[in-house]
Specification:
single chain, Arc Repressor Mutant, subunit A, 66% helix, Regulatory_RecX, WH-like_DNA-bd_sf, cytoplasm
Length: 162
């Protein structure tokens, strides 16, 4: 069968294409998944180089897709950065993805923090304990101190503060 190795097992390319058909993957993610399938490190590296050269795998495209999906989930920039780095993207690739997102009008972190807070809670909380709970919620979603403060002050405004 075409694309199959002599032992009836799929090639690293076949496995990588199947993974990429489902969603974008970072180079590191693909390398880890292919290694878990028992492919040799040198064939994995060669395969990933070929896929990148052909435009089938792109860390930049992965970062943009990942960032967009996390924004839609209501996650903040701190958490998203950590996740991108954990998936093997370097600082420059992460900065580039955030810059592209900003240019596209995505990632108004102050507004996103307020929207996430308003979806989860009906108001700012009456007691310090309730307000602290809301702060922890936003911090766990990856929003920074200024974004949390802004959200606590404006999440329930009738007209969003721009």
């Amino acid at each position: 069968m075409l694309g199959q190795s002599s032992g009836g097992e799929s090639s690293p390319r076949d496995d990588a294409i199947r993974l990429l058909a489902r969603r974008e993957h970072s180079r590191r993610e693909l390398a880890e998944r292919l290694a878990a399938k028992g492919h040799a490190p040198e064939t994995i590296a060669e395969c990933l180089d070929d896929l990148a050269e052909q435009g089938l795998q792109s860390d930049a495209r992965f970062a943009e897709s990942f960032l967009r999906s996390r924004i839609l989930r209501g996650q903040g920039p701190l958490k998203i950065r950590v996740e991108l780095e954990r998936r093997g993207l370097d600082g420059e690739a992460v900065r580039h993805a955030f810059a592209e997102s900003e240019q596209a009008g995505e990632g108004d972190w102050f507004t996103l923090a307020g929207e996430a807070l308003a979806r989860r809670f009906t108001g700012p909380g009456e007691s310090p304990r309730e307000r602290a709970r809301r702060e922890r919620f936003l911090a766990s979603r990856g929003f920074d101190f200024d974004q949390v403060r802004h959200a606590l002050e404006h999440a329930w405004d009738s007209a969003p503060d721009q």
